[in-house]
Specification:
Layout (H helix, E strand, L loop, with lengths): L9 H9 L2 H4 L4 H6 L4 H10 L10 H8 L3 H14 L2 H9 L7 H10 L4 H11 L4 H11 L1
Helix pairs in contact: 1-4, 1-6, 4-6, 5-8, 6-8, 6-9
């Protein structure tokens, strides 16, 4: 994901780097705290971790849950943008893995939850190909 969140406070950036650690490893929130990760970064990581919240079992319900927290939304937007990067998608397609359309479906909820100016900062860093989609969502909201 690179440093898609470079323009944001450290807690958000750290959560971006560690966003999958609880979900994909045996690491717990308590482990992160013991390593010195801030309580706010842990809150963000926990909010985007599918295995910690029953509502996250349904992807779109999980997106709506994440979108209730500004900072978690920014982390999820960065993750979504990375997962939707055309180069990454092309590599997945070569391996006969079809990218999930759920990422596109999630963007409307995510993009309407935080200021477009913040989304642009992320997209310019990690996936500028999504900027026209953001503009279309902005235009439809007017």
């Amino acid at each position: 994901m690179g440093d898609a969140l470079a323009d944001f406070p450290d807690d958000i950036r750290i959560a971006g780097y560690l966003h999958d650690v609880i979900e994909d490893t045996g690491t717990s929130a308590e482990d992160l705290a013991a390593l010195g990760v801030s309580p706010r970064a842990i809150e963000i990581i926990s909010r985007v971790s599918r295995n910690l919240h029953p509502q996250m079992a349904d992807y779109q319900a999980g997106i709506r849950y994440v979108a209730k927290d500004h900072d978690a939304t920014l982390v999820k937007i960065a993750d979504n943008a990375h997962n939707s990067d055309p180069e990454r998608v092309a590599k997945l397609a070569e391996g006969n893995t079809v990218p999930s359309p759920r990422y596109r479906e999630a963007r409307r909820a995510l993009y309407t939850a935080v200021p477009a100016s913040e989304i642009r900062l992320i997209l310019n860093r990690v996936n500028p190909s999504l900027l026209p989609e953001l503009a279309a969502i902005e235009a439809s909201a007017v």
